[in-house]
Amino acid sequence: MKSEEPDSFAAQRDDLRHLPFVTIDPLAARDLDQAVHLQADADGGFLVHYAIADVAALVVPGGALDIEARRRGTTFYFPDGAVPLHPRALSEGSGSLLPGVDRPAVVWTLRVAADGRVGDLAGGGVAVGRALVHVVAKLDYAGVSADAARGTLHPSISALPAFGQLRRRVALEQGRITLDLPAQEVTRTDGRWTIGLAVRYDSEEWNAELSLLTGMVAGKIMRDADVGLLRTVPAPPDAAIKTLRGLAHTLGVEWGDGLTVGQFLARQPADSPRTLALMSATTSLLSGSDYLALPAPILDGAEPVTEHSGLASVYAHVTAPLRRLPDRFATEVCVAVAAGDPVPQWVLDALPELPKGIRESSRLASRADRESIDLAEAVVLANAVGERFDAVVTRPQRAHRPAEVFVADPPVLAPCRGDLRAGQALGVLLAEADPRERRILFAPAAG
Length: 447
What we know:
Layout: E1 14-15, E2 21-25, E3 34-40, E4 46-53, H1 64-72, E5 76-78, E6 81-83, H2 88-94, E7 102-112, E8 126-140, H3 141-150, H4 160-174, E9 184-189, E10 192-197, H5 202-225, E11 228-232, H6 238-251, H7 261-266, H8 273-282, E12 290-294, E13 307-308, E14 313-314, H9 326-339, H10 345-350, H11 354-380, E15 388-395, E16 403-408, E17 411-416, E18 425-434, E19 439-444
Helix pairs in contact: 4-5, 5-9, 6-8
């Protein structure tokens, strides 16, 4: 299905084609949501122009494409392909910020001070509006990291490492919690499925800071206007933080005075088994993620959760509209509020019902990802039942839930029999590997 109409906002766009925007994505990606032009200023701060694919300009509200996108909610990823939120003619074509062509975009302009903080709409530190942009280069994470190491970064992002490092430091000071758990990746090589750990590049972290900062700014705009769609995570209960501190003490990891959870975790060595156990335990601190439509009703006298506790900030999804449904609606709110215009009625009509549908699509996407990895693990290990592996316990046994271990080669996370201690290194035997059930099970090795 093709997009139903050409650029609906062509007459409302600034011409920013003089800015040499670049994209930074995985090498094979063609659904390019974001492009950036970033400059350091004389005061030690940064001027950021962040262009986001303008999907709302290409989708007619209430049309067939809009209805189908609302049903899907997100792009679903599988090892052998993806089921896109939008037709590829849009997500990898007319809507994608591909190099060498003019594209409609929503451009965020952020003035970041030397202390890493950004202003607001009223003070001129933030602007957002529609523009026509031109991407001059499609860059990838591996290449950007290599260029940074050589000192040969593209001029449009020469300041990106400094920006990313500054924003990460400020965010940790403000209470952000970052979980660096191993990311499993299923690939097909020479007709065989394999599972490995995804390579992490520092350029991914720098680039992520652009998206996170933009989402925080967008969240504040909508919260202050009391209209929009926020991404929320409730504050962790004191008992969960106490449990994490207890685990750190049990593992012999010192928690320095005054350190937040995020600062403590950021100081842990990435290759330590104890760090893996701590990170796994921390996932319970960030449970309960949801979306909140504004204005939000007060239920049973309780104020709704409006912040994302993992980011220690109000936050919204606005930077991946080709792949996520909520970004299109939240972006339209921000554009309208910034211009002093009424929020479009089609957005206001949709907001109350969006969280329910997005919850379901997010649940299905998570299930698809988990079951794909479970299947790959079982297939890869199907002929290894009875073999011994080195493992680290990431989660102890709890009630009716078995312990969980991480095996590095091949990299799998799986249940394990026995009353095991988090952070414990041990040998395990593969007791079961059933591809039909997408299940593997380990047991402690004797001795």
